[in-house]
User: Which sequence fits this backbone?
């Protein structure tokens, strides 16, 4: 069956980063059933470009999420608070490339992400190397966390998925489409092959993908791969913030 990106021109990773790195942006997330995806995005501008790496679309990703023993990162996501932060390693499996990332939500809901290259083996073995401790601590303090937070971090969840990345025809933003999602913790595992997460990354104005999804009846949803995954894996954790998605896709 043809996919929504089948006829789109390719863009390389270097070109994508140069044209729309979008590390400071407004994010909107949508959750769809996979059967609805091609219909919802079938009307994309034909000048939209799709990321291809070694002729591959989509690309396989793996993320490891780190938190404190009291799950501070999870709880500030579960309860709406201004000082949200997230620590993860992200690995692009096809190219064996990894990054250490800090995401924090600043003023007016703007998400700021900072990242540095990371050792592939450390990422795959869920290790935080000592050489990154000062960098992490500085970012965590800037995100409003108390001194010493970085030293408490340990891996709490793993996730993998396949990602299709789009650059809008007018260059105003990006969108990602994640499929084949799964999550794992130290003692639990789940997968959701029918679930698709679409995320638009733009300035204050909605992108073309936003407008296409709205026209198909889809509205932004509260979902965090980290927060929703933790709640789905561990039923004793709060779930109210992501109830709609959990009830529809994880019940």
Assistant:
């Amino acid at each position: 069956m043809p996919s929504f990106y089948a006829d789109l021109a390719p863009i390389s990773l270097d070109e994508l980063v140069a044209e729309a790195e979008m590390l400071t942006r407004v994010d909107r997330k949508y959750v769809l059933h996979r059967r609805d995806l091609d219909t919802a995005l079938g009307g994309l501008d034909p000048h939209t470009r799709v990321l291809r790496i070694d002729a591959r679309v989509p690309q396989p990703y793996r993320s490891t999420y780190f938190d404190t023993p009291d799950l501070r990162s999870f709880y500030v996501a579960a309860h709406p608070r201004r000082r949200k932060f997230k620590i993860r390693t992200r690995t692009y499996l096809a190219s064996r490339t990894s990054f250490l990332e800090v995401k924090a939500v600043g003023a007016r809901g703007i998400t700021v992400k900072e990242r540095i290259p990371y050792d592939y083996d450390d990422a795959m073995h869920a290790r935080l190397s000592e050489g990154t401790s000062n960098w992490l601590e500085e970012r965590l303090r800037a995100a409003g966390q108390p001194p010493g937070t970085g030293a408490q971090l340990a891996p709490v969840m793993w996730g993998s998925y396949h990602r299709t990345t789009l650059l809008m025809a007018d260059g105003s933003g990006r969108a990602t489409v994640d499929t084949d999602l799964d999550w794992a913790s130290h003692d639990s595992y789940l997968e959701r092959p029918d679930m698709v997460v679409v995320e638009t990354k733009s300035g204050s104005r909605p992108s073309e993908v936003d407008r296409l999804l709205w026209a198909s009846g889809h509205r932004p949803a509260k979902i965090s791969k980290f927060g929703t995954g933790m709640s789905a894996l561990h039923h004793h954790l709060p779930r109210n913030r992501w109830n709609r998605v959990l009830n529809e896709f994880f019940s």
Notes: The domain at 4-250 is CATH 2.40.320.10 (Hypothetical Protein Pfu-838710-001). The mean pLDDT is 90. The first helix runs from residue 13 to 20. Helices lie at 13-20, 37-41, 72-78, 120-124, 133-142, 208-215, 225-233, 243-249.
